[in-house]
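mind reviewing this fold:
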Amino acid sequence: MKQYYVYIATNYSKTLYTGVTNDLHRRMYEHKNKLVKGFTSKYNITELAFFEECGDINDAIAREKQIKGWLRAKKVALIETQNPTWQDLSREWYEQA
């Protein structure tokens, strides 16, 4: 079964970006290496703060839209339920050069 991920990525100053993908490892690699131009490369969004899995793309998109509609405080509370110290959850996924 295909998996989809809703995620919140951040930077050193805790700017938040909410997205959806079917390959979280690839997507975070793209963010870390600024392979996609736009908000995440401009604001150096390179750390994975939160993610959850969905089995259906429509559910994932609906959840992404729900989270995007929340106030920042509610997003922060969501992150801190899974990741209270704001560690980069993707920090060990890639070999260090």
Observations:
- Strands lie at 4-10, 16-21, 47-54.
- The chain has a mean pLDDT of 95.
- The first strand starts at residue 4 and ends at 10.
